[in-house]
Amino acid sequence: MEQKSIAATEAEITDEFSLFDTWDEKYEYIIDLGKKLPVLDNRFKLDQNKVRGCQSTVWVVSEYKEGKVFYQADSDSVIVKGLISMLVRVLSGHTPDDIIAAKLEFIDRIGMTSHLAQTRANGLRAMVKQMKNDALAYQLKNSSEAS
Amino acid sequence: MITSPEIQGGLDTALLRRQFPILERQVKGKPLVYLDNAATTQKPQPVIDALVEYYSGYNANIHRGIHTLAEEATAAFERTRDTVKEFINSACREEIIFTRGATEGINLVAYTWGRQHIRAGDEIIVSTMEHHSNIVPWQILCEEKNAVLKVIPINENGELLMEDFEKLLTEKTRLVAMVHVSNALGTVNPVKEIIAKAHAVGAAVLVDGSQSAVHLDIDVQDLDCDFFVFSGHKVYGPTGSGAVYGKLSLLESMPVFHGGGEMIKEVRFEKSTWADLPYKYEAGTPNIADIIALKAALDFVTDTGKERIRQHENELLALATSALEQIPGVRIIGKAAEKVSVLSFVVDKVHPQDLGILLDNRGIAVRTGHHCAQPLMDFFGIPGTTRASFAMYNTKAEVEALAAGLEKAIKLLA
């Protein structure tokens, strides 16, 4: 099966959220996503994989295979886990270039930024930043190996 | 007389709530249920009016001014000092130093009295349940002076182990810095007993009254504490207002804190001399508007009646405690026999932040996290709690909304 583009997955998530009338339903869905995201193996739960700027603990690990970045993530907060599971779904399996260029407008479109308190929205931004930083590191490694 | 169904503990909360304009607002499409009062209380109309009246009627820099506005502003500012003096029953107005809040008050004492009295090998005692602001200034001082910070342990209910405290007290003890009421647990500490015991070994005592000033009757003369600090914004007053009480003899002999205008008698390049109390510790233009409005807040509390407020808050606490104890998975953190209306809890397999988000979605404001008391959280072996804290304007209906919201949230999350 062909890998969906980042924009296509974003549109898919936006569509899914458009079915919900209330934030109760949205949270129920996010929590469900959080519960479904596999637990990260303890050996990855290292300080270096922790996302700074979150009230809860968030770990993000990535792997680079055949030109693509694959993410795994976990959190002690199930809501945060749900949010990060959406980010993983959108970004995982794409090239560093595509990940760095991703606008991730779905976060705004599903109303997350306006709904979350500032401190939590910062946490979400910190997760995106860490995921993009990983992609950037692979991109830099690529270009140094190529030159 | 027609009585409203909301009359509880002798307080007409329906009437009272009309004095707090913010309580009319909606959050996430639902009526605001504000249960984060231990962080900051909402402000009644007289406080808001006092701020507006100052800026629209007599804004001026205080002291030394010869014109009418300066005189009016100075008089209003100094009236707050008299009100604070009454509020905590200090012996004289010179013992009241205005600060931005309790944190600045503790730092003032650490940097003045602390630097003067603490020497290498001396010991400062704090408790496990201190707020970071009553730990860090003493750590800084201990590091600078090679002094030692000692910690009074607590039991599982969140009460001080007084026998251990007595063992910590030695001839090396210079200071006991003690929270009156724990912000994270609600525990009321036996400060009067602690002060007497500390004095017996010649140690001074600072009482952090951040949480107690709003709930308890404060009598610094009866307590016989050497210092007492509190923040105005936790007593229905403006942010950036607060005070330090210090015994006159200590304040007179302590070195100055900040240098600048207002705190001087005469300035010469060779040597300057300091102003009399309380101005010696009030360098620069103070937070005039907020200090003026603090009087309105303290008057509001006094007029409403601390005893009636306390009775009302205790009823809410009892109701909330029994409601939450019935929810499976909820564990209350802090079960001291003597408590104010602070209810901290954890829920099995549920992160406090998730609870906070889902409660906020129902318009219910609680605090989640470590409450600036990480050593206390470490003692309980938890990263944080969810905390509901009640004020004079909260109602039984709001407690029920909390319990219902919590049950729904837990069903979703667990």
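Chain B touches chain A at residues 28, 350-351, 353-354, 357-358, 360-361, 368-369, 383, 412-413 (CB under 8 Å).
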